[in-house]
Amino acid sequence: MTDLRSWLEKVESFGELRHVLGAHWDTELGAIAELSYRTPEPKALLFDDIDGYATGRVLTGSTGSARRLGLTLGLGDDLDDAAVVAALRGKPSVWAATARDHPTETVTSSPLLDNVVEGRDVDLLSLPVPRWHAEDGGRFIGTGCLVITTDPETKDINGGCYRMEVVEDGRSATIAAVPGKHGAQHVRRWFDRGEKAPVVVSFGHHPVLLVTGGTEVPTGISELEYAGAILGERLPVLIGEHTGLPIPAGSEVAIEGWLSPDHLADEGPFGEWTGYYSGRRRPAPALEIARMYHRDDPVLLGAPPGKPPHDYSYMRTVMKSAMIEDALVAAGVPGVRGAWAHEAGGGRLFIAVSVETRYAGHSTQVGHLTAQLPAAAYMNRFVVVVDDDIDVANLDEVVWAMSTRCDPVRDIDVVGGTWGSKLDPMLVEGAPPYNSRAVVDATRPYDRRATFPKVSTGDPAYLRSVMAKWADVFS
């Protein structure tokens, strides 16, 4: 099950797909999606009969529930929030270790080849590309996309999810890859050699590629192989005739071409995952499209960000939490009991870690290590370390621990000059994209653990027995 349509059939079978007919591509589609994310049980939305378009569809909310994320990650489609988190424990390290056992499988036929458009005739606006937010600078086709690049020396393949605005009347699209990300590094290396950078982009695919493209897969591991490890099968790919790069054969829409340092177009602003519009309109590399491929009546995978919760904030929170916990355990740190990259911080800005403190300085070690892990370092702002009696996923409990077990003058370290982003609303225009981060020790002081006041709540086992006895009171 490596294509989007099979995934859609499965999601519809268990009642988590809603069809929306007749929405307009200009902000209305985005507003409907935004309102859906705010509901208690947001569904995936498939927009059809989009105003002004006889063909082409848009999907949003693909990974926004435990059942849909569990299906996407091959963990099962009957999981609740707690079960999907439990099922993920240890999985990222296994997927990373086995990714190379799932090399892509080259194929020569695919429904993607039903419509092939050469560069001079390409019109991305023949598809219902949304303008997602009212203050967006244009129509962004790249929200749930996978941008595939290669290192010119090692030939490593990378797949990243970067924002892409349609420009030049549909003949091109900008690629705004954040500096430091693997895709941006690949492009820079091609430019440094005085050459154009080959690029493939898929705009509609199995959501596992949204997951792998939107999280920090370890360096040197292809997101396509990592996706194969997740699904337990090799991902079929076509080979682009112009670029030689792999194109997911299950894709709905794909393009291939080149980026050049002197081919720029203005892009932005865009409503980003921080919950703010990022920057002013500015130049970004624009793709010279050699060819476009698409299925009949294709589905664009939309993943519009915004103020959390947004399209992929649930997925990023669950995935990054598992990756951070795995990385801490792999680093050999004892006593780690859980990690949670909170959705309110976009799955990046606010991370809580629980630990069974075993020695003086243990909690400080865990906090500083977490703040700089590859899985957590990008644009992190707060790391809070709590005792193992605190549920790291419960923000109320984390704030309670900060409020009662943390002495700010002693227990908060601030580290400057760390990996930030131009997307940071706190960054001053034109300044280098550094940020600072606070490491908060909200554990009981190690030297007072025996005498620290006891928590005034019932014993968990006793509370469970009372709940069972008086179940009618709580029903």
TrEMBL record:
Domain 3-octaprenyl-4-hydroxybenzoate carboxy-lyase-like C-terminal, first and last residues per copy: 314-442
GO terms of molecular function: 4-hydroxy-3-polyprenylbenzoate decarboxylase activity
SUPFAM superfamilies attached to this UniProt entry: FMN-binding split barrel (SSF50475), UbiD C-terminal domain-like (SSF143968)
Swiss-Prot/TrEMBL keywords: Lyase
InterPro entries, per database record: UbiD, UbiD-like_C, UbiD-like_N, UbiD_Rift_dom
Recorded GO CC terms: cytoplasm
Record-given protein name: 4-hydroxy-3-polyprenylbenzoate decarboxylase
Native source species: Actinophytocola algeriensis
